[in-house]
Amino acid sequence: MSLWVRALSEFLGTAMLILLGDGVVANVTLNKSGMKGAGSIQITIAWGLAVLMPVICFGAVGGAHFNPAVSIGLAVAGKFAWGDVPLYIVAQVLGGILGGLIVYLFFKDQFDATEDPGTKLGVFSTGPSVKHTAVNFFCEVVGTFVLVFVILMNRNAEAGAVGVGNLFVFGLIVSIGMSLGGTTGYAINSARDAGPRIAHMIVLPKDDHNWSYGWIPVVAPICGGILAALLWLVLKTPMQLG
Q: pTM score, two decimals?
C-alpha cells in the first residue's frame, strides 16, 4: 500500500473520529440538542465507539493510528517507519480540522442557540477542570502513556490474550476516559485537540481559542507516547516481545 493511500486513510479516519467524538460532546452540551444533559457516561462510551468505527474502516489500510502520539510511539518502538511519520501527522491534523468543521455545520442551529463561548469551545477541544499547568501536562502524559503502552503490549499478545478483535480499541478508550478523563478531558491525541481547535478558529474567529492551554494536549501526548515506547523497548528483550 502506498504511503499516500495510507495517509489518506489516516485523514479520513481522523475526520470520522472527530465527527463522532466531538459530535457526542455537541449532542450533550449545546442548547436545543435533544440529548442535552446526557452526561459523561454517554460521552465516554461514544468516544470509544468514535475511535472504533474508523479503526474498523481503515485499520487494514494505514494501521489506524489517527494520533501523532501513536505514530511517533510506534516509530520509537521500531514498529513504524520514521520517514512515514510527517505525512501521517499532517494527514491526522487535517482530518481533525475537517471533522471539526463538519461537526459545526451539523450542529449549526445548536451552536447559534448556545451563548457560552466555553461550552462551544468544549465541543471542539479539551480543557482542564482545574488549571494547573504542570499537573495538566502530567495527566495528559499519563493518559497517553497508557494508550500507547497497551497498544504496544497488545500487538505482541497471542490471539485472544488481550481484547477481542477491534473491541480491544473500544475498551481501551472507554477505560482511559472513565478512569482518567475528569482532569483534562483526556485528549491523549495531539491531532484530536489541535485539529478541531483550528476548526474552532475558522468558524468562530472572535471567540477565545485558549491556546494558552492548547499546547498541552499537543505536546504532552507525544511525550507520553515516547515514554511508553521506551518502556516497551526496555521490556522487549527480557519479556521476548516482538
A: 0.94
